[in-house]
Write a structure and sequence with these properties.
The chain is an all-alpha fold. It has helices spanning 8-20, 24-32, 43-53, 62-74, 86-116, 135-142, 155-164, 172-181, 183-189, 195-214. It is globular and about 55 Å long.
C-alpha cells in the first residue's frame, strides 16, 4: 500500500483487509479440522459470516465496509470475477498480492525446516513427497497457464504451482518484493535439479524481471 502511493485512509482500509481476510480460518479449523476449502467450506464465506455475526465493520462508513467485504470475499478466488472496478478492484488485487507474498514466506520456511528434519516435521503434507512432478502441471506452468489444484499429484506439483503465482500478481511492487526476498529461487532449490526445472526457473525469473521493468 505504501509503495503504491495510497493515502492514509486507503492504507487503513488495506490494513483492516489484511487483518480480517483469513478470519474464517479459525472457524474452519474448529469445525472441520482442516484448512482445505474443497474438503470443508470456503474460508472466505466463513470470514464474511463472522464479520456480520460480530458486526466488526459496524462503525465504518458503508462504502468502506463494502470495499473490505469485497476484498475478503474474493481474496481466495481462482480468478477475480469480471465487473470489478475502481477501489473494489484495487483492494481485491492488493490483498491477493499481499497474501501470495505472505504464503511464500511461510512455505519457504516450511521447506527449509522439512529439509533439515523430515521426520520431525509437524505440518501435515496433503500430497506425497515424491521425487517427481507431473508433466501436465509442468507444461501448463511453462506456458503461463492457470492450474487446477485438482490435478496436483505430488508435493513438487504444489511447489511448481507456487512458481506460477507470479503470472497472477497485479503490481510491480509485489514482484519487486518477491525478487528481493528470493522466494522463487528458494522454491526452485527445493525442486528436483533437472534441465526442465532449470528451464522453467529461467522462464519464471525472466518474466518477473520483465514485469518489474514495465512497472
Amino acid at each position: 500500500a505504501e509503495q503504491l502511493g495510497l493515502d492514509e485512509n486507503q492504507k487503513r482500509i488495506a490494513e483492516v483487509i489484511g487483518l480480517y481476510h483469513d478470519i474464517g480460518r479459525f472457524r474452519q479449523f474448529k469445525l472441520h479440522r482442516t484448512y482445505n476449502d474443497p474438503k470443508s467450506v470456503p474460508h472466505s464465506d466463513l470470514g464474511l459470516e463472522i464479520l456480520k455475526e460480530y458486526d466488526l465493520l459496524g462503525e465504518l462508513d458503508e462504502r468502506e465496509a463494502e470495499l473490505i467485504v469485497a476484498a475478503i470475499e474474493h481474496h481466495a478466488d481462482k480468478q477475480l470475477p469480471e465487473g470489478l472496478k475502481g477501489d473494489k478492484l484495487l483492494y481485491c488485487q492488493l490483498i491477493r498480492d499481499a497474501d501470495k507474498i505472505d504464503i511464500y514466506r511461510v512455505v519457504t520456511e516450511y521447506y527449509e525446516e522439512y529439509a533439515r528434519d523430515p521426520d520431525g516435521f509437524k505440518i501435515e503434507i496433503e500430497l506425497p513427497d515424491e521425487p517427481w512432478y507431473s508433466d501436465e502441471v509442468y507444461q501448463k506452468i511453462l506456458a503461463g497457464g492457470r492450474i487446477s489444484y485438482k490435478i496436483l499429484k505430488t508435493w513438487n506439483d504444489c511447489k511448481l504451482v507456487q512458481l506460477s503465482w507470479v503470472y497472477d500478481m497485479n503490481f510491480g511492487a509485489t514482484l519487486r518484493r518477491v525478487k528481493e526476498k528470493k522466494y522463487l529461487e528458494k522454491i526452485i532449490d527445493f525442486l528436483p535439479d533437472t534441465e526442465d526445472i532449470r528451464k522453467l526457473g529461467k522462464v519464471v525469473l525472466e518474466y518477473v524481471e520483465k514485469r518489474i521493468a514495465q512497472n
